[in-house]
Amino acid sequence: MSSIKSKVKGTPSTPFMADFVPLEKLWDGPNAPYPSEYSARWAVRKLRDHLVKAQAVALHRSRIMVHPGRFAEVAERAAIDEFACRVSHG
User: Fold this and answer.
1) Whole-number pLDDT of residue 13
2) What is the chain's Cα-based Rg?
3) Whole-angstrom Cα distance, residue 80 to residue 90?
4) 25, 68 in Cβ contact below 8 A?
5) Residue 2: pLDDT over 70
6) Other Cβ atoms within 10 Å of 86 Cβ, number
7) Are 14 and 4 in contact (CB under 8 A)?
8) Contact predicate 61/22, CB 8 Å
9) pLDDT tens, position by position, 47-81
10) How far is 89 from 19, CA to CA, in rounded Å?
11) C-alpha angle with apex 71: 54 to 66, nearest 5 degrees?
12) CA 89/CA 57 separation, integer angstroms
């Protein structure tokens, strides 16, 4: 990820958005939480307000970035709430 360079010589640079990954990580790879780009983007739209509140999504240089841990917490809470709603109404 990016880093912010110090103006003081010899001082290490500071990682910038070190815990965030590109949105593609939600559907790419064998352990991806979503099966496709469409389903991941749908989840981001559906959970947008909760993701923003949890600081799980950011926009950097016109790219959507996600914080995997925070994103997972929001998605898990939404799944539990959805099930609870269906059980209580069904």
Assistant:
1) 66
2) 17
3) 15
4) yes
5) no
6) 9
7) yes
8) no
9) 999 999 999 999 999 999 999 999 999 999 999 99
10) 39
11) 95
12) 31
Collapsing DSSP to helix, strand or coil, 63 comes out as: strand
Tell me the domain boundaries of the chain: 18-89
Q: Are strands 14-15 and 3-4 parallel, antiparallel or unpaired?
A: antiparallel
**Residue found by looking up tokens 């360079």 in the block:** 5
Counts of helices then strands in the chain (DSSP H, E): 3, 5
Say what the pTM is. Answer: 0.78
User: ∠ CA(56), CA(87), CA(72), 5° rounding?
Assistant: 15
d(CA 79, CA 90): 16
- How far apart CA 67 and CA 57 sit, in angstroms, is 6
**Residue where the block lists tokens 């939600």:** 26
